[in-house]
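Long-time lurker, first post. I've been practising inverse folding by hand and with some scripts of my own, and I keep getting stuck on stretches where the structure tokens seem ambiguous. Below is the full token string for one chain I'm working on. Before anyone asks, I'm not after the true native sequence, just a reasonable design that respects the backbone. If someone could post their per-position residues I'd love to compare against what I wrote down in my notebook.
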């Protein structure tokens, strides 16, 4: 696939976004969240909500970090809280995306000038200022954050003194470095695509459409999706948006995600790292489950690498097959390695069942979204859902 051209005239006033500051997860149990993020994925817990912010928000939160990947996890103390209301409507998942900006007051003026909808004014403490806006993502808000040398991305958080290198940023033993992209699923993505372009100033970066039924699609087999990646050139933030396509619109795993999520939502967050082989090996030893890849994928892989103009790559192909890591790329650009955690992990309580998952990605020159891997992920999820479809369970 070729990258879509960028229309520089579409962006007049930049929001001056710097990076994804954090994703905020609303969860039933902060202790279970700690066990997964801290004990399994080796995120450091760097901050907790202070008493004042807990009284105001009626929820308890903790901040976890690996590299520049930050997760704010919040459990409700009362039903009448943002976390409580979210969890009444949805399974555990991403309820807010936080973006670092140079100047929060300027960002608010630009958002309002473009027709965006703030849900409140700017909240401040000595180190952090932030405001939230409504989005076309159902109950997922967007929060713009201005902070000065402070690791917690929201006002009212207390740093944990025991967290190592809390102000400078620490790496974990999995080597997670940053958020590569976030992926959203919709029954129709046009409102969100237009909103990202007109309100946030994002531009189209990449697109794909396919159907697993191929030439037989008109006879009712398989399902498919349409995907567009939106991009903020200044920060290099990428949001991938998916929607189901006909025929068999309701059979698409994108549609089924929206049923399980009970609305549009964030399907996965991609964590970039430098050595995916070591990280996946470590996580598998800890019992982490990943989405399966059929053995036929690896039987065809040497031929696919030749077709992509890559030839031999440094990684050992039998090891990639053993760990079920995916490969994609193009000889003139480079390649990438990916794998996707299973949404359901061992030891989780039934309250944590959620269609959200993490992706691990190692980029070796290729900044795109591999078409072959994209389809492999889709078919893997579709295959996992097949028994549920036959028995009538799962949504």
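-- Answer (accepted) --
I ran through it position by position. Result:
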């Amino acid at each position: 696939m070729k990258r879509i051209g960028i229309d520089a005239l579409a962006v007049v006033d930049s929001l001056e976004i710097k990076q994804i500051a954090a994703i905020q997860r609303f969860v039933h149990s902060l202790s279970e969240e700690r066990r997964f993020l801290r004990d399994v994925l080796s995120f450091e817990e760097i901050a907790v909500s202070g008493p004042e912010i807990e009284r105001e928000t009626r929820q308890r939160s903790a901040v976890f970090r690996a590299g520049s990947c930050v997760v704010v996890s919040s459990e409700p103390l009362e039903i009448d809280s943002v976390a409580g209301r979210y969890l009444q409507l949805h399974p555990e998942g991403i309820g807010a995306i936080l973006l670092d900006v140079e100047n929060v007051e300027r960002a608010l003026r630009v958002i309002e000038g473009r027709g965006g909808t703030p849900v409140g004014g700017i909240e401040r403490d000595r180190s952090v200022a932030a405001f939230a806006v409504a989005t076309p993502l159902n109950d997922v808000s967007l929060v713009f954050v201005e902070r000065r040398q402070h690791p917690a991305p929201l006002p009212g958080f207390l740093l944990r003194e025991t967290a190592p290198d809390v102000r400078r940023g620490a790496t974990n033993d999995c080597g997670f470095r940053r958020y590569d992209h976030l992926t959203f699923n919709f029954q129709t993505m046009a409102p969100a695509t237009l909103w990202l372009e007109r309100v946030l100033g994002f531009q189209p970066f990449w697109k794909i459409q396919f159907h697993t039924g191929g030439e037989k699609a008109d006879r009712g087999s398989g399902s498919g999706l349409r995907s567009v990646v939106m991009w903020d050139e200044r920060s290099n933030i990428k949001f991938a948006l998916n929607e189901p396509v006909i025929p068999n619109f309701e059979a698409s795993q994108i549609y089924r995600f929206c049923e399980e999520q009970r609305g549009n939502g964030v399907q996965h967050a991609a964590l970039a790292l430098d050595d995916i082989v070591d990280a996946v090996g470590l996580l598998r030893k800890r019992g982490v489950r990943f989405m399966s890849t059929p053995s036929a994928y690896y039987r065809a892989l040497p031929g696919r690498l030749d077709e992509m103009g890559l030839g031999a790559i440094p990684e050992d192909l039998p090891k990639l097959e053993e760990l079920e890591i995916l490969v994609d790329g193009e000889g003139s650009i480079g390649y990438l390695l990916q794998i996707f955690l299973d949404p359901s992990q061992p030891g989780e309580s039934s309250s944590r069942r959620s269609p959200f998952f993490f992706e691990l990605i190692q980029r070796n020159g290729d900044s795109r979204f591999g078409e072959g891997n994209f389809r492999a992920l889709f078919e893997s999820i579709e295959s996992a859902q097949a028994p549920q479809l036959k028995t009538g369970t799962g949504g």
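A couple of notes from the structure itself: The chain has two domains: 9-173, 177-391. Residues 371-391 form the longest helix (21 residues). Happy to go over any region you disagree with.
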